[in-house]
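Hi all, posting the design record for the shared folder.

TITLE: backbone redesign
STEP: 1 of 1
STRUCTURE INPUT:
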């Protein structure tokens, strides 16, 4: 494993696993949101070009396939996709805790200077709303995206599977 994408619905633990895997494999971790989310939650320009440049590197671990602009470049170069296909009953409580941690003072600074706003949980596009109402649709979408995509797909369906799989890669 030299070029790894960790995929899954929001709140599944993609960034957490990607960081841990990058440390275990001594590879650079690339936070994909930094290529997409600009200041004030604006969309950054030239996403596909910048991700293609990153993906051309010899080794990396990144944490997302959600954005359409990144799917082609990442899947063309990744040798492995780790799919965190955790159930809604695991993801939703994680998102509630994360939303409270990020939305209540002191609100931590996130990618490119952004901060989450607690009221945004009511928006249809919020991570919590996505996990609550579009979990099954996201699973189906990701299954279609990864079918025959090229890289090896490792599908982990429980936190125990995630922990066991990660422990096999730690030195």
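Okay, here is what came back for every position:
SEQUENCE:
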């Amino acid at each position: 494993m030299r070029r790894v994408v960790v995929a899954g619905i929001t709140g599944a633990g993609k960034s957490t696993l990607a960081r841990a895997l990058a440390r275990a494999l001594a590879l650079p971790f690339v936070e994909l949101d930094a290529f997409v989310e600009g200041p004030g939650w604006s969309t950054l320009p030239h996403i596909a070009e910048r991700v293609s440049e990153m993906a051309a590197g010899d080794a990396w671990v990144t944490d997302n396939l959600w954005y359409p602009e990144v799917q082609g470049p990442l899947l063309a170069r990744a040798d492995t996709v780790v799919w965190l296909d955790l159930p809604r009953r695991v993801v939703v409580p994680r998102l509630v805790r994360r939303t409270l941690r990020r939305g209540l003072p002191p609100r931590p600074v996130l990618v490119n200077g952004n901060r989450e706003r607690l009221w945004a949980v009511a928006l249809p596009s919020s991570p919590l709303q996505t996990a609550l109402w579009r979990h099954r649709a996201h699973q189906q979408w990701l299954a279609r995206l990864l079918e025959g995509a090229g890289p090896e797909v490792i599908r982990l369906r429980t936190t125990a599977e995630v922990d066991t799989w990660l422990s096999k890669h730690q030195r």
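COMMENT: Strands lie at 3-8, 29-30, 60-62, 80-84, 152-156.
Let me know if anyone wants the other runs.
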